[in-house]
Amino acid sequence: MNAEDITQLYRQKNYALAEKEAKAALRLDPNNVHLLYIYALIMSAQMQFAAALGACSRILKQEPNHAYALSALVTCCVQLGLPDLAETHIQQFSHTDSPTTQSWLAGLYGHLAMYDRAIDNQSKVCAAHPDDPYGRYTLGTLQMSAGLVEEGMRNYQHHASRNMMRVYRTDMLNNGWDIEKYWEGQSVAGKTILISPMGGYGDFMQFCRYVKALKDMGAARILGLMGNPRIHGLLRSCADLEVIEHHEGHEFDFWTDPFGLCAYLQPRYGFMSQDRYLTAPSSDWAHQTVQTIQARAAGKRCIGISWYSDTADAGTRSVPLATLLPLFGLPDIHWVIMQRGLALDEFRASGLDQMCSIVSEDATFDDTAAIVQQLEAVVSIDSYMTHLSAAIGKPVYFMASRALDWRHMNNETQSPWYPRTTIVRQPTIGDWRSVVQQLCTLLTPTTPNA
């Protein structure tokens, strides 16, 4: 099987067969860079980061400027707690005059939580290329990652700009979007504004809180474009948001996206932190599922958990199943597994499923929200599950990497967006064991003094 066939298996998430075929191909051609890179991706997807790191190192010995291999190596080093090794490889990457490449390299330091170094490097990029919107956007995300909210948000606005769309998002032009209608924070009084679903479902759930702000600014109509009907019930609970499945046939004065809402409305309205701004829709299936869960729980507390994501940018966020074992040993908790795909297969193979309840992979977002609404709390990584649970007002324990995504503003324990979300953050890069240890303490009821 050749590299293209193995790549196809990887894209189909058939990781076990892809790994087998990649190993066989590498035995015949051990220094093939393409094969080594695909093998690294396959192993990273299965959270086998030591093997992936070995493959990336072999690539970079042959091709020190292999950007994709360097990115994959940084992900491995973050998970394995090896920031110094990653820094060494970043420094060995040849100097380039490309502002995009320079911004990417600064971002790699951000992935390692080396924020001072990242901001210093990126500030120099922006000084040399002041009109590059991607550079200013990158600086903004790094500043917010370091907790510099005001400065960061000012630079982040370059992401939500027509200039960014023209230079870096030509796909939107090609798909028929009128860039001149992209909203840049101007008055919406009496206007209709459409929110496109750029980003993930969690992004839409998080930033639809700003629909209220648009209404306060006098918007006549606010359209929420969402092609997936499996989340329509939840989004329709957002006051003043008209959920539509297609934008064709709808007239609107401006269009934006969840990140544009954040960029222009957070400086004016703040984080708009609130206990609840979405409501779980009713679901007979979810109600029956919860009844079954409660019967299996036999009086124990029912808490949802999600620890893995296979999205492209989630490699540093997922937690190895073995590290979570102390949580599954807590005696008074019945765990409700809100997991899919590879991680769920691994969980079932471990035998732990006999003492937990697993929510069907066929559950819609609406069904999931209805189930979560009836749980005591949710433990989750940085994924849509965190936003869904927090937006409907449930307590969330957020398992967080030391290198947090920019939107969490470098907070250690409390989310700026969700008052009932507790951040449980790695003390150092790669230290998920301390996160789990702290969670065990937080989830263990305290007995009052007699």
From TrEMBL:
Protein name: Uncharacterized protein
Taxonomic superkingdom: Bacteria
Organism the protein comes from: Ephemeroptericola cinctiostellae
